[in-house]
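agent> fetching stored inputs for the alpha-D-glucopyranose docking request
agent> found them:
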Amino acid sequence: MEQKELDKLLADMSLEEKIGQMIQPDGVFYARESETAVTGPLAGLGYTKRDLELAGSVLGIYGAERISELQKENLEKQPHHIPRLFMLDVIHGMKTIFPMPLAQGASFDPEMVYQCARMAAKEAAVSGIHVTFAPMSDLVRDARWGRVMESTGEDPYLNSLLTEAMVKGFQGNDLSEEFSVSACVKHFAAYGAAVAGRDYNAVELDDHTLREFYFPAYQAGIQAGAGMVMTSFNTLNGIPASINKKLMRDVLRKEMGFNGVLISDYSAIWETLAHGASEDAQEAAQKALEAGVDIDMVSPAYHSSMENLVKSGKVKEEWINEAVMRILQLKNKLGLFENPYKDADVLKEKQILLSREHRNLAREAAEKSFVLLKNENILPISGKQKVVFIGPYVNNPEIISSWAITGDSRNCITIEQAGKEIEEAKQWKFYQGCPMFGNDYELVGFREKTPDKMSEDEQKRLEEEAVSAAENAEVAVLCLGEHYLQTGEATSRGMLEIPDVQMKLLRRVAEVNKNLVVVLFNGRPLDLREISGMAKAILEVWLPGTEGGHAIMNVLTGKTNPSGKLPVSFPYCVGQVPVYYNSYSTGRPNSPKLRERYRSKYLDIPNEPLYPFGFGMSYTEFSIGSIKVNRCIVTKEEPVIAEVTVKNIGERKGVQTVQLYIQDEAASVVRPVKELKGIQKVELEPGECRQVQFTIHEKMLQFFGTDGCLRCEPGTFRIFIGDSSTVEENVQICYCDS
Ligand code: GLC
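agent> prediction call returned; pasting tokens
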């Protein structure tokens, strides 16, 4: 449709119709229970039958056949036959589940992340979906916060790269094209900075920190053309995001230039009452509209109050018109006025979902997401060795995460299944060893099934069986970790260990076999001190998705050489949290060598995390030579080219992620001790060398001053190029603005 046709349509619409476009009921009101993937608390929402008929979008229904039926009904009931949007959380896959987002962050591979989003979009589109509520672009420094698994980590540069890749992957070249769905950048803003890592808690951040660390990834998603942005649950400096006019109209719309659809998070407008920021639904609706929220997701606010607000003159109908026009424009970009059914196709659903091509990508992506945290010459293992696999993750197919709501763990490949496919591995044995949790652990409030309780006798039997097998094995591979329901929304944890019953098993096995490998499944950074003290190798596999077992076996046997790098710091212990690499020096910087008292340090733990951002090992060795620069001065016109020689000095082909960090040594505001500003992945054969160059231009040296303006100040900078954020060797350059 042309804009002028949209203008005419809007002018012809009644107020009732317009308000209808601004509400999004939960799918449970429209579909047979089995087809909806409902999320969030369902309360008495007061939708009338007419509300449900006029709703401009619906949350959480999927399936080509059902959505086509509903769209047909909708077109008949809508006075102007306006097509409905169907939206769903396709966070890291639809039916083929790719590694969870934090794991994809560990790949440091925007192209791979783009491909995963592309294939997820294809599966979602043929299932009738028009909008996915992804990527989550929240920067996260706090491992206590369960949704860290849904982020891509602690770094604004990496988060920006991967947000852009996901938006482009979901949206393709044009929203109207086949297999394109609109992305929705969330949660605006700074939801990952909840005080004490407690979900939904307040966020208190100054503008400078917001602009320097938390805003860049959202901005990257908007610049990549995201069709939608979602508000966050939290207050930001005292005002709930969903009614925060300064944040939404001044920052998001004006400063960041977002003119797409702004949707609230689930019931977030209504929750401003619980925040103590709105007296009633009417005030909540008024404030949210004034803040520029276009769609009210599953809350009583807009549908119960908006008509009265307009008729009483408390809100201007032009604000309604603005919101509805943005919604109509998104539908128009998706081509829904020409084809309200877009890509919904029952036959293609059967052909595309879980296709071999998609499974292959899921496996490759998982392999690239794994991080080898430790390896004292025990990995890779061979099928000829006598290996026992022990732990609740040996045969647990629930490896797709709590944000894979349309996935089915029955499609997953477990470690045992993949291991038994290896012909030569005739001596490999598999034992559960213990339940996921002891009987003292309760996962309350989850709709999904939590693990069944196991009798003490059965636990004893499993443990004895496993320990005895470990006694006679060359290598014991412990497959341990968090249960998938321990991470995701509303899963903040104050302790960062794996369940006690698993640690007990590990200690028992360690008594009889020192050749321990730990394969770790988790959604968040954990306190790995004890595990690291006992294991000779640790392979971080996160929640690896549908093809997890195959990917793990390929890496454990060396068929694939691990190449992942940590997108988040793993703390020494929970007392260190939040811990992140791009911190400030302080006036009394500590260093492990210093023994002085009056330094910024702890008495009882180190400042450094156990495993740092950007760290990850390989089965081969790489050397990275000294930095050479073509000049020492960056100007507006002239960049500096920095170059290193990377060499594979080991015996296996491998991939190294070469990282460029920059430190601004002195400025009008303090600057982080390091900032990631470039990554390049190089695959090298044994003995092979490669020159790796980074172009350092003025833009890379810019930062936000306390006035909120981006600037670059003359002065000296340090350039680091290495294989993790702990790189020390550097060269000094300077920036001159004349
Ligand atoms: C949730 C989440 C949000 C999700 C929405 C719809 O509560 O906060 O990320 O997209 O509801 O399911």
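agent> quick read of the result: The first strand starts at residue 23 and ends at 24.
agent> awaiting further instructions
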